[in-house]
Design a protein that fits this description.
Shape: globular
Strand order of the largest sheet: 13-14-15-16-17-18-19-20
Strand content: 35-45%
Number of strands: 20
Radius of gyration: 26 Å
Distance between the termini: 15 Å
Order of helices and strands: HEEEEEEHEEEEEEHHEHEEEEHEEE
Number of helices: 6
Helix content: 10-25%
């Protein structure tokens, strides 16, 4: 058991960083649709409430379901009765409610307009009133909404990074609250709280790679050093080449003692069914610890998933999440040898059945999948592994049946590991 401590310590340190991002994902808490004109089963207004602190955001999809019977215009308005004073001035409606968002839209027949409203528009109030009103023409419009709660970044400036300012009404840390906070010819974009043009000093997941791992190159050097000590030079050189290639999608593993290995990798993810029709080919990365006794073993794995959404959500949206997977596996020797390194190198066929606790971190497809964020999955996995001393290189394919989810998932992995 003591021999497994280096692996356990590595997982305890690295895995939290694997799933860490600049901010927590948003939780979908309500969804529905409004109509103009309203119908028995489709009202023209809704009250959205949130328990506990958070920043509000809305995904809106406005559909014009009518025929080409002339121009028509509808108004989308979001108001609140709560007492809040946003830094940017807002007006009130005829009832005295604060108007957080107000826009007139005129989609053509069979046209859909998508909007994403964040905390800059909706603030951190716990109750919102969403309204859809026909302003002009013969309306036949339907507004689908998905209500999210984001985590609050700050309540005062002490919680922000250096040179950032807290805007409590928006629950965010901003690089600027006016042009005076920017340099030279830069302007302050109030909607994002950043100076333009120029790189923001705030938190941004987009530039930090698939898993937000800026420490990746340094970690790879350390792990390659471990590999060089544990295996012979020629094998270390091969390991370095493979690891550098695999680094494009995932970090490499740490060393493991006899009977255990730590592996990491990544590859494609494909959803099937209704969600497959709405998403494109995604990617994921994984870290797993594998224990084996002769030709049988078991695996514990943490992984991430991310899919581009093509329909059913605003442009640029992604379906993301993570999974915890366990399961038994069998290793079958194959009559294949590789003599490039001067000795026989065994290949093994991996056969496994995995159980996965599959979680959606930020579900932009909730109108199709429901508001649930956790699903159970079971499915087979087949793989091919090359083992040479302390080095493991493998490829595997898996099929996961997701219970209660409108579709399943197919995954393809390339992995690199060190251990037995």
């Amino acid at each position: 058991m003591l021999r497994l401590l280096p692996i356990t310590a590595f997982i305890a340190l690295v895995v939290p960083a694997l799933f860490a991002g600049c901010s927590d994902p948003a939780d979908p808490i309500d969804m529905g649709q409004l109509c103009a004109p309203e119908a028995d089963d489709c009202p023209d207004s809704a009250t959205l409430t949130r328990d506990g602190p958070g920043r509000n955001s809305l995904d809106l999809m406005l559909h014009h379901d009518g025929a080409d019977n002339g121009d028509s215009t509808v108004r989308i308005r979001v108001t609140t009765d709560e007492d809040i004073d946003p830094p940017d001035s807002r007006s009130t409606d005829e009832d005295g409610a604060l108007i957080l968002y107000d826009e007139h839209l005129s989609p053509g027949p069979d046209e859909t307009i998508a909007k994403q409203l964040d905390a800059y528009h909706l603030t951190v109030v716990s109750e919102l009133q969403l309204q859809l009103t026909c302003i002009e023409g013969s309306c036949d419009h339907r507004l689908e909404y998905l209500y999210f709660a984001d985590s609050i970044e700050c309540v005062d400036t002490d919680m922000c990074r250096r040179n950032e300012f807290c805007e409590p009404a928006y629950g965010r840390c901003a690089e600027c609250t006016g042009d005076g906070h920017c340099e030279g010819e830069q302007e302050c974009l109030r909607e994002t709280g950043t100076c333009y043009p120029g790189e923001t000093t705030g938190c941004n997941n987009a530039g930090s790679g698939p898993a937000g791992l800026p420490w990746g190159p340094a970690a790879l050097l350390v792990l390659l050093g471990i590999a060089a000590v544990r295996i012979r030079p020629r094998k270390a050189a091969l390991a370095a080449a493979v690891v550098c290639t695999a680094a494009l999608v995932a970090p490499v593993s740490a060393s493991a003692e006899t009977g255990a290995s730590l592996n990491a990798g990544g590859g494609m993810r494909i959803l099937t069914g209704d969600t497959g029709e709405m998403t494109g080919v995604g990617w994921g990365i994984n870290v797993n610890q594998q224990l084996r006794w002769r030709r049988v073993g078991a695996k514990f794995e943490l992984s991430t998933n991310s899919f581009p959404i093509h329909s059913g959500a605003p442009e640029g949206s992604r379906l993301s999440g993570y999974a915890v997977t366990v399961g038994p596996r069998a290793f079958i020797p194959l009559p294949i040898q590789l003599r490039a390194l001067g000795e026989d190198e065994p290949f093994e066929l991996l056969v496994a059945v995995d159980y996965s606790n599959w979680n959606v971190a930020e579900n932009r497809l909730a109108p199709t999948t429901g508001l649930h964020r956790r699903f159970h999955g079971v499915g087979p996995t087949l793989g091919l592994t090359w083992r040479s001393g302390g080095l493991n290189i493998g490829a595997r394919a898996g099929y996961l049946h997701l219970f209660g989810w409108p579709g399943d998932m197919i995954s393809l992995h390339l992995t690199v590991g060190i251990g037995s």
